[in-house]
């Protein structure tokens, strides 16, 4: 499936008119993208490091996951919205950028992993789950979000 | 005067072979910068969790000072990584960074955030017994947490802005901006005070 039409549409959209004409607005949106990344990273790490038994060992891991999930959602919404805005300014360039597609691939894996695997699984009492499985989930989660962020930064270098 | 000293220091760093090497190494420089940015998720991420607790928005059933204490170590590890990679980034591009208005504001905000963190810690240690289990800590604690988030957001904003050349010395700027950014030569050329 070729998504070129989607990028051509975005490139011609009203959003693109706004983002291309205002370098300052673009920069500010990019800064919020970064702040949301920090929040998302913090929520992922606190949850995963708890599953790995590195931090907050005095708290039940169910409670840690519960508290971090809501803010993860919020951070993800800000990241996607700011990301679409930034993409509109350079849509055609991104379409031909392999790092961008690597990031989108990793993002897709990350989102499916969080909402279809990590959360449903961790809704069970963690005592009933194999500790090795919990650690595997935590390491996978850290790796996939690291990949998304690193590819994202590398879009700018490539 | 201070502008002259800072520029001299930056120019001296700029003569180092390692500084040039770092700047010109595509992979080394890019990875140091990537590490610097991604570690935001560790340092600022932990800080956001702690400050959101202080504001009463998350982990409300966990003692606030305990959460801060437990997350302190990973947060400080993140901070050290950010500091080291940040110094390396400065070392790679010393002159332009020294003459960047954004870098200068960032340093001021960093100092302010550090002072705020120090005062916050003292305030917390002195009174935590009375509010540690409160869902919403007292307003002076919440103010400190909100200020912390604002200052660090400012550090991220100005840090990202360093990459933009809007106010670089080679642009036509006002004398005040030349002075504030430390564009010593341009200020002289514009007839301003040294």
Describe the fold and architecture.
- The complex is a heterodimer of chains A (158) and B (194).
- Chain A has 158 residues and is mainly alpha-helical.
- Chain A has one domain.
- The two termini of chain A are 24 Å apart.
- The model of chain A has no long low-confidence stretch (mean pLDDT 95).
- Chain B has 2 domains: 162 residues, no CATH class; 30 residues, no CATH class.
- Chain B is an all-alpha fold and 194 residues long.
- Chain B is built from 10 helices and no strands.
- Chains A and B meet through helix 3, helix 4 and helix 7 of A and helix 3, helix 4, helix 5 and helix 8 of B.
The gist of it:
The complex is a heterodimer of chains A (158) and B (194). By secondary structure, chain A is mostly helical. Chain A has helices at 4-12, 14-21, 23-51, 61-89, 91-95, 98-122, 131-157.
Structural class of chain A: mainly alpha
- Radius of gyration computed on alpha carbons of chain A: 18 Å
Mean pLDDT of chain B: 95
Helix content range of chain B: over 70%
Instruction: Report the oligomer.
Output: heterodimer
- List the domain count of chain B as a whole number: 2
Largest sheet of chain B: none
Count of strand segments of chain A: 0
By DSSP (H or I, 4+ residues per run), the number of helices of chain B equals 10
Structurally, the number of domains of chain A stands at 1
Q: Total number of β-strand segments of chain B?
A: 0
Major sheet description of chain A: none
